[in-house]
Amino acid sequence: MENAADSNIAAEVDVLTTVANAWEPLNFDFSTAPGFDPNIEYGKAIIFFDFVVDKPGDGATYYWDDLQFGPQFFQIDLPVTFEDPLVDYSLSDFNGASSVVGADPVDANNTVAATTKTVGADFFAGTIVGKDFGGFANPIPFTATDCPSGCSRRLRGSSSS
């Protein structure tokens, strides 16, 4: 990104594609980019393709579309519904668990998380909810005030082999 009036005011991030001959969403996170200042007005987006020093152009064509400044996502909090498109439902798997967020196999109008304990996974393989943002926005309520009828929590789930 560059300031429209001064090209010396700029911030850069590198993002690598992982597929060829197919569309792939790429996210450019400038929050930790050297020189980035959210108080500066950036008026230019500049994209470099196959940015390798001392590599001349080879005639390759790069297709790109739908450039947008993404919405500000909100930190995950209870209750976790997987329904709000502006909440970052970060799931971080460990020791052989593999999770995705998608359509409920019973009710396509409902969004759920599906976790697979892969073959050979550790017995304690699991998923951390909200890890990328440091957990929930608010502490889990375990006080008599916050859960007057007790602090039981329910988890709707199913298992298939």
How is this structure best summarized?
The protein has strands at residues 91-94, 97-103, 111-117, 126-129. It has 161 residues and is an all-beta fold.
Please describe the biggest sheet, giving its number of strands, its sense, and whether it closes into a barrel.
2 strands, antiparallel
The backbone outline, from C-alpha atoms, is extended
The helix fraction, in percent, is under 10%
> What number of structural domains do the residues give?
2
Low-confidence stretches: none
- Over all CA atoms, what is the radius of gyration? 21 Å
SSE string = EEEE
**Roughly what is the average pLDDT, rounded to an integer?**
82
Q: What count of helical segments does DSSP give? A: 0
Strand order of the largest sheet: 1-4
> Which structural class is indicated by helix and strand composition?
mainly beta
Distance between the termini: 49 Å
Fraction in beta strands: 5-15%
Query: What's the number of extended β-strand segments?
Result: 4
